[in-house]
Structure formats: structure tokens, C-alpha cells
């Protein structure tokens, strides 16, 4: 495309965006009856379709700017998500016979923000796609590359410079690890913290050796390899921690939000605001965990289309952070039809995006790794159950069997969402069918036998839990790849060793950095509380310098240590930008037709 044509198209899309934003303002005057909102929605879809088709014509200007392309696709996905929220709002308005102005304002503001973002990308070349936020794996790779350079350097000054650069990168890895630890289970928090301290001790040993007047090159090499090995060990612990967060979060995926809904829609709770605060704290932690899982999944996948969809879901949840709880609080304070509908629509929008996010994440998680985590967690629970049975107790803790069932149901749901290799699909489906049957059997036995509080009946429940555990073990074996370095046995643990944790000032700094990373997390709609952070900008400049060297990454010696258990990365066909935009246009048109049929 020539410059004149490009300039003309850019002017056109800018004008189209201006017209669309101007049209959005007209929603305030649109009545809530079906005919009016349908007419308005059709016109809006027409404006947006024109914008997207023009973008399709000038997509070539994005080809050499990966982040701009990703940002554009993210905004386009968000436009479709916002349109679906419009539809749900208008349908609800027609049912109750009045306009839901607060939902309209929220949705219009969100769509207007997307249009502004598209204009920034096309006209100003500004990308808001946060490439490195939550990207633990990227920081890992870069830190290991820099540490490996120390092996090949003979001059002391160069060695000190390489170590200084590596230390900054290692600190960033440790900070990201601690940001994940903040939302992990308490035991995993201790493990990651202890492993981080071990890495710091390795760095200190290397620093002491390099700083000597005549450093021993063999010792420098040994300490450098030790640092890399310890960092790989930390990576494995973080992978396991994220998998456990997945299991815990998926087991009660919608419970925390449903609890807030039940509490606020009960008029008897109007005088109990502190109880709501506790529920909100639980929900906030739950959302933080979902965000960390999503960001970690993005960092582990090479499929751009899937990653953008995940980030779009995360952006939708982020946009609701400032709206959802206040909407429920409004119901608690003033139980009226307007407030109830506002809370219900926002809640359903959150659930839709969260369910889609879960499905996308499940496409990335390695089935073997997830089966191993479920097996390990259930093995511990069944062992706890066996102690009560062996003690011949008449009453045992029913929550143990309930947790076994919940974990197993999460695994069953996960296995329904993923795709399988053709040569192994028959055996896997047989084992999944067996798993489903034994889950029902354990649940029925728990419901019937445990209330009777008889030791012999408790033993029957325990035996069924053991059979369930064996069924999960069989599934693990199905996912083992021939000649793979992964191995698994019934007695094997994924490595919950617990390093001794002692006081360390620099470790406290790392932990605080991890908290800050978690606090500053931003997907699309929320601005970072700290706009500039010297360490991060310094690290990024050093990373770019590394890329310019075009050095190969000598990580072959570390492959045996870096068993990335969270994901598998099979080569997948990347969907082109053109096809993704075309799909978005088709989805937009389908939404318009669907709303017409509502």
C-alpha cells in the first residue's frame, strides 16, 4: 500500500472511530423497549464493522510491530465481549420494563476505551500490551542465558559486569516467583521463599569468588552452574505451586462470588457489613489467583491467538473489579429492582468470562502434570482418612472425602476440555469413564455410610477412595510419553522439599517486590500504581542488549532440570492476524443477528 493510500485509510478509520464514539453518546436518549434498542444496536454494529474492515485493509502496518498487533487484537476481542454485555443488558431491560442506566454507562465507557485504544495503536503507534507482566518464564530464560555467559569469560572485569547483569535478572525472577507465592497455598509459599533464599545464597557465593583478587575459574564456573541449577529448582517449585493454585481455584471457581450474591440478596444481612467484608476479601484473593494463573499460562504458551483470548478474559475481569462488589453492596443497602438487576448482569458477565478463561487455560496445562497434582493432593487426603479408619473411629471428618471428590471432579472437568492424541484416545476415554463412575460411587457411599458413624462403613468409603486414587494413577500413566524424562509412581511426590528459612534482609526486599508486582498487576483497563520503576527499565534495557547480540542460548545442560510441568508446548499452527480479525467481524455480525432473534 502506498503512503497516500495509507494516510487516507488512517484518516478514514480515525473519522469512523469519532462517529462511533459520538453515536455511543446517543444511548442515553434510547428508550428501553425492544424496537428502539434493537435499532440502536444494529447501527452500532454497523459502525464497528466499518472500523474493523478498514483495519483489515491497513493491517500491513501492524505486521512488523508485534506488540501493536497484539494490542489491536486484544481491543477487538474486548469490543465483541462488550457487545455481548450490551445484549444481556437490553434483554434484561425489556424484561423489567425500565432502562438499566448504570450498566449502560459502564458498558459504554468500556467500549469507548477500546475505541480510544485502537486509535492510539493505529495513529500514534502506542501499544498498551504489557509484554513482560507476569512473564515468569521469559525472565527465567533471560536470567539463565546471562548466567551462562560467565562460564565463557576469562577477564575479571567482564566477569564482574556479566555477574552484575545476571544478578539484576535473577532478582526479577525471584520477585516474580514471590508474586506467585503471595497467592499460593501457605505450604507452597514457604517452599518458594526457602528456594528463593537458596538462590540468593548461591549468588552470594559466586559474588565472593568473582570478587577475589585472583578468582579460581573452575570455582567460578561451578558456582555459576550452581546458581543456574538452583534457579531451575525454583522454577519447578513455582510450576507446582501454580498447578496447586489451579486445582484449589477450579475446585471452587464460582463459590466466592455466589457467596457474596447470597449474602447481599438476603435482606436480613443489611446490618452485617463486616461479614460482607470477609466475603469480599476471600473473593479478592480468588480473583488474584485467577489473574496469576492466567498470566502464568500466557507466559508458557506460544499460541498467540489463545494468549490474546486469555488476556481478553483477564481484561474483562479486571474491568469489573471496581464495579462488581459495589453493585452487590448497593443491593445490600437498598434492595430494589434496579440494584438487583445491575448486580445480576455484572455477575453473569463475570461468570461468562471466567468460565471461558478456565477453558482456555485448560488447553494450555499439561494433562500429565495436572493429573500428578490431583493424585498427590488426593493421596495425602486418603492417607489422612486411613489414619481415622485404622484408629477405628466411628466419626471421621467428612470434609476430607468431600475434598477428594471436589479434586476429582476438577480433574474430570479438565479432561473434558482438552484434546488428545489419536493413538491414545481410546485408553484415555476408558479411564475417564471409570473415573466418573468411581466419583459417583465415592459420593454416594459418603452420603449414605458416613452419617451412620460406624467403623465398618467408614472402611467401605476409604476403600472406594483408594480405588479412585488408583483410577487417577492410571490416567497419569496414559499421559506419560515414551522415553520421556518425566517419570511417575504411586509413591512419588512432585518435590515438596522444605528448605530451612532464615532471616535475610535482601530476601525481605525480594518478597516486597513480589507483593508490589502483584499489586501493580494491570491487563488493559487498570493503570499501574507505579508508572516507572528503575529496576525494571534497567532490566529491560539489558534484555534488549542481550537480544541484539544474537547469541544462542546454551541451556542444553539444564534441560534435565527444567521440567516445565505446568505446560506442554506442541507446535501449533498460528492463526494469522487477518483470520483473527475476520473471525471477530463474523462474530460481531452473528451477535447482531442473535439479538434480533431474542
Automatic annotation (TrEMBL):
Task: Identify the domain of life.
Answer: Eukaryota
- Any keyword Metal-binding? no
Q: Which GO terms describe its biological process?
A: cell migration; cell-cell adhesion; cellularization
Q: Which Pfam families match?
A: Serendipity_A
Q: What is this protein called?
A: Serendipity locus protein alpha
Q: Which organism is it from?
A: Acanthoscelides obtectus
Any one GO cellular component localisation term in the record: cytoplasm
Q: Which InterPro entries match?
A: Serendipity_A (IPR008837)
**UniProt keyword annotations, A-Z:** Cytoplasm
Q: Lineage of this protein's species?
A: Eukaryota, Metazoa, Ecdysozoa, Arthropoda, Hexapoda
Cytoplasm recorded as keyword: yes
Give its localization: Cytoplasm
GO MF terms held by the record? actin filament binding; beta-catenin binding
Amino acid at each position: 500500500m502506498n503512503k497516500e493510500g495509507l494516510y487516507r485509510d488512517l484518516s478514514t478509520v480515525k473519522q469512523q472511530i469519532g462517529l462511533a464514539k459520538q453515536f455511543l453518546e446517543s444511548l442515553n436518549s434510547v428508550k428501553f423497549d425492544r424496537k428502539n434498542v434493537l435499532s440502536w444496536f444494529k447501527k452500532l454494529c454497523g459502525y464497528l464493522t466499518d472500523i474493523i474492515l478498514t483495519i483489515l485493509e491497513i493491517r500491513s502496518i501492524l505486521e512488523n510491530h508485534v506488540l501493536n498487533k497484539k494490542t489491536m487484537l486484544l481491543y477487538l476481542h474486548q469490543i465483541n465481549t462488550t457487545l455481548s454485555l450490551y445484549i444481556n443488558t437490553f434483554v434484561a431491560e425489556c424484561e423489567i420494563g425500565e432502562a438499566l442506566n448504570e450498566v449502560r454507562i459502564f458498558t459504554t465507557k468500556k467500549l469507548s476505551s477500546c475505541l480510544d485504544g485502537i486509535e492510539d495503536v493505529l495513529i500514534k503507534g502506542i501499544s498498551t500490551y504489557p509484554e513482560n507482566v507476569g512473564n515468569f518464564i521469559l525472565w527465567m530464560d533471560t536470567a539463565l542465558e546471562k548466567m551462562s555467559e560467565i562460564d565463557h569469560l576469562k577477564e575479571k572485569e567482564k566477569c564482574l559486569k556479566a555477574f552484575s547483569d545476571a544478578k539484576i535478572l535473577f532478582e526479577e525472577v525471584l520477585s516474580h516467583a514471590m508474586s506467585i507465592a503471595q497467592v499460593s497455598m501457605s505450604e507452597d509459599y514457604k517452599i518458594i521463599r526457602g528456594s528463593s533464599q537458596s538462590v540468593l545464597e548461591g549468588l552470594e557465593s559466586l559474588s565472593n569468588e568473582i570478587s577475589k583478587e585472583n578468582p579460581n575459574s573452575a570455582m567460578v564456573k561451578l558456582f555459576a552452574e550452581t546458581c543456574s541449577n538452583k534457579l531451575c529448582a525454583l522454577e519447578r517449585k513455582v510450576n507446582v505451586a501454580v498447578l496447586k493454585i489451579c486445582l484449589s481455584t477450579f475446585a471452587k471457581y464460582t463459590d466466592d462470588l455466589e457467596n457474596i450474591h447470597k449474602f447481599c440478596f438476603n435482606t436480613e444481612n443489611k446490618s452485617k457489613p463486616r461479614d460482607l467484608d470477609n466475603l469480599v476479601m476471600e473473593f479478592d484473593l480468588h480473583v488474584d489467583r485467577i489473574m496469576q494463573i492466567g498470566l502464568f499460562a500466557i507466559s508458557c504458551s506460544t499460541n498467540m491467538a489463545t494468549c490474546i483470548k486469555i488476556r481478553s478474559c483477564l481484561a474483562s475481569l479486571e474491568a469489573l473489579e471496581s464495579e462488581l462488589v459495589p453493585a452487590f453492596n448497593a443491593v445490600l443497602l437498598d434492595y430494589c429492582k434496579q440494584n438487583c438487576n445491575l448486580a445480576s448482569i455484572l455477575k453473569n458477565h463475570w461468570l461468562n468470562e471466567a468460565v471461558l478463561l478456565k477453558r482456555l487455560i485448560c488447553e494450555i496445562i499439561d494433562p500429565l502434570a495436572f493429573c500428578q497434582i490431583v493424585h498427590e493432593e488426593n493421596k495425602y487426603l486418603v492417607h489422612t482418612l486411613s489414619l481415622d479408619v485404622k484408629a477405628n473411629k466411628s466419626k471421621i471428618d467428612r470434609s476430607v472425602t468431600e475434598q477428594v471428590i471436589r479434586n476429582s471432579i476438577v480433574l474430570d472437568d479438565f479432561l473434558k476440555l482438552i484434546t488428545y492424541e489419536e493413538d491414545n484416545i481410546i485408553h484415555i476415554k476408558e479411564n475417564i469413564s471409570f473415573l466418573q463412575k468411581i466419583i459417583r460411587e465415592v459420593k454416594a457411599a459418603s452420603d449414605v455410610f458416613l452419617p451412620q458413624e460406624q467403623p465398618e462403613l467408614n472402611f467401605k468409603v476409604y476403600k472406594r477412595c483408594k480405588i479412585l486414587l488408583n483410577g487417577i494413577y492410571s490416567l497419569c500413566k496414559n499421559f506419560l510419553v515414551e522415553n520421556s524424562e518425566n517419570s511417575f509412581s504411586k509413591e512419588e511426590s512432585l518435590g515438596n522439599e522444605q528448605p530451612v528459612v532464615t532471616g535475610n534482609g535482601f530476601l525481605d526486599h525480594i518478597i516486597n517486590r513480589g507483593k508490589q508486582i502483584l499489586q501493580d498487576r494491570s491487563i488493559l483497563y487498570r493503570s499501574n500504581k507505579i508508572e516507572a520503576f528503575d529496576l525494571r527499565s534497567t532490566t529491560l534495557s539489558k534484555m534488549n542488549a542481550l537480544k541484539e547480540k544474537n547469541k544462542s542460548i546454551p541451556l542444553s545442560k539444564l534441560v534435565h532440570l527444567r521440567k516445565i510441568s505446568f505446560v506442554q508446548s506442541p507446535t501449533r499452527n498460528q492463526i494469522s492476524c487477518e483470520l483473527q480479525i475476520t473471525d471477530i467481524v463474523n462474530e460481531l455480525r452473528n451477535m447482531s443477528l442473535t439479538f434480533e432473534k431474542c
